[in-house]
Amino acid sequence: MQAKKRILIIGYDSNLCLGVLYCLRKEDYEIFLVTSNRKNAARFSRFVKKIRYYEKQDELLAVIIDTVKASKIDLVMPIDEMEIKFANEHQDQIKAHAALSWTTPADKFSIGINKLLLAEFLTKNQIPCPRFATADTLEALLSAADEIGYPVLVKPARGSFGRSIMKFTAREEIAEFYKDHFDTDFILQRFLVGSDITCNVICRNGDIICHTIQESPVKYGSDFSSNDILEFHEDAQVIDAVGRMMKLLSWNGVACVDIRRDKEDGRIYILEINGRFWASVVVSWLKAGVNFPLIMVRLALGLHVDVPAAKPSRQITMKQYLDSFFSGKNSFRDTKYISYVSDPVARLAQILRY
């Protein structure tokens, strides 16, 4: 009988770890986890065989190699952005002991995950992105905002999950913000009223192997976090822009591309690349039928993969489900929480941040 393949995932975020574990849970794999997050809810997961912690990044390579040797790991698969970047920088040492999931060349990866560098890259290559500016003094910042036009967004050049993005409608607000953030690298960008689009991909040397496209309702305010109301569909405009970008970046592996569709004219603008798995990775499988973690594992191990086409689907909020409970219009399966039932203790720990 052939021994189960052993996969070592490396990641910090609880939701990403639990999502990847769920997507691989029924396959013939044993899953191990290395993380620096002592409160990672995956420590309670039914689907992880063993977890190992590290404290500082300079310990990570030794921990990876030691775990690979001790547990006879077949594949190392980092799933969070900084962990993927680290593995890419140390791929020769890791590949001497186990297979490594695909990674993008370091110089291109660094462009992709930095909002400012990406905006410059997109503008240079005539790929749609919102107007942007940078400034190192308050006067220059105010002048740039005046030129772009209010409202404007101020974003950290590095960041994810919509954290630390601020919307400003007047000069006075920017001046107040600048007092506490004058030493922070940030990008100033025009605010677009429109819907959020996420294009999730696996690429091989810039060519998109598989993808899903999910879109939220139109957003008018200052909530830049992910949305639980999603529609999965195809969009030629999105695939054209993302495909050109990924080809120029020689992207290799997974990515989550955030896009805004302008409510007024329907045009799309690429906002950022998250060079990692994404919060809705389980939904991509359960709703759209594309199991990205499994596809990535099989590709990295050199195994045959039947890549499915994404199917149209939707996800609703828990509130929408409860509001229609007695009418039977919606199903619990239409929410993201259906997968939580399979790993209840870990998901409860995630929700409670225990």
Overview of the structural elements:
The structure is a single chain. 34% of the residues lie in helices and 24% in strands. It has 354 residues and is of the alpha/beta class. The chain folds into 3 domains: 5-101, Rossmann fold (3-Layer(aba) Sandwich), CATH 3.40.50; 131-190, ATP-grasp fold, A domain (Dna Ligase, domain 1), CATH 3.30.1490.20; 194-315, D-amino Acid Aminotransferase, Chain A, domain 1 (2-Layer Sandwich). The chain has a 6-stranded antiparallel sheet with strand order 14-13-10-11-12-15. Helix 7 (138-148) runs antiparallel to helix 8. The protein is globular and about 65 Å long. It starts with a strand and ends with a helix. The model has no long low-confidence stretch (mean pLDDT 91).
Report a brief summary of the structure:
The chain is an alpha/beta fold and about 350 residues long. The protein is about 35% helix and about 25% strand.
CATH architecture of the largest domain: 2-Layer Sandwich
In CATH, the homologous superfamily of the largest domain goes by the name ATP-grasp fold, B domain
**Major sheet description:** 6 strands, antiparallel
Which outline best applies?
globular
CATH topology of the largest domain: D-amino Acid Aminotransferase, Chain A, domain 1
- The average pLDDT score comes to 91
Number of domains: 3
Strand order of the largest sheet: 14-13-10-11-12-15
Rg result: 21 Å
Just give the CATH class of the largest domain: Alpha Beta
Helix content: 25-40%
First-residue to last-residue Cα separation = 40 Å
> Helices and strands: which structural class?
alpha/beta
> What percent strand?
15-25%
Low confidence ranges: none
Helix-strand sequence = EHEEHEHHEHHEHEEHEEEEHEEHHEHH
* Count of individual beta strands: 15
Separate helix tally:
13
